[in-house]
Amino acid sequence: MAGDIKNVGEKDFKTVVLDSQKPVLVDFWAVWCGPCRMVAPIVDELSEEYKDKMGFAKVNVDEAPKIASAYSVMSIPTLIVFKGGKPVEQVVGYRPKKDLQKVLEKALAQQEIG
């Protein structure tokens, strides 16, 4: 993996994602998912480009079904940006890099409420 992308599961999701001081992009994926394999290199590139601004994590939905269910992940790949422990942006399915960059920039620009 290009940047520092953490593979997280049910034991460390809260610590790595929800308790993070920086926004975190979580890639919900599975080994058997073709579009997931297409989006993975893009997420790797983004993790390198945005490594100072946000964290990156991957959740294998087959290994952590409770997390996928908790965030209503019905299709994969699903990419969710968490900020302050809450989901703020979500993308379902394969998208080109420029679309994902817009999502990240939007999430980074949002002011935290509270």
Structure at a glance:
The protein is α/β, with parallel strands linked by helices. Helix content is 36%, strand content 25%.
Fold topology:
Blueprint lengths: L4 E3 L5 H6 L5 E6 L4 H16 L5 E6 L4 H6 L7 E6 L2 E7 L4 H13 L5
Structural description of this entry:
- The protein is an alpha/beta fold and 114 residues long.
- β4 and β5 (86-92) form a beta hairpin.
- It has four helices and five strands; from the N terminus they run βαβαβαββα.
- A five-stranded mixed beta sheet has the order 1-3-2-4-5.
- It has one domain (5-109): 3-Layer(aba) Sandwich (Glutaredoxin).
- It has helices at 13-18, 34-49, 65-70, 97-109, and strands at residues 5-7, 24-29, 55-60, 78-83, 86-92.
Average pLDDT reading: 94
User: For the record, what CATH class applies?
Assistant: Alpha Beta
CATH superfamily: Glutaredoxin
What is the makeup of the main sheet?
Answer: 5 strands, mixed
| SS class | alpha/beta
- Termini, distance in Å? 35 Å
The portion of residues assigned to helices is 25-40%
* Secondary-structure element series: EHEHEHEEH
Question: Could you name the key traits of this structure?
Answer:
114 residues, alpha/beta, Glutaredoxin, 4 helices, 5 strands, 36% helix
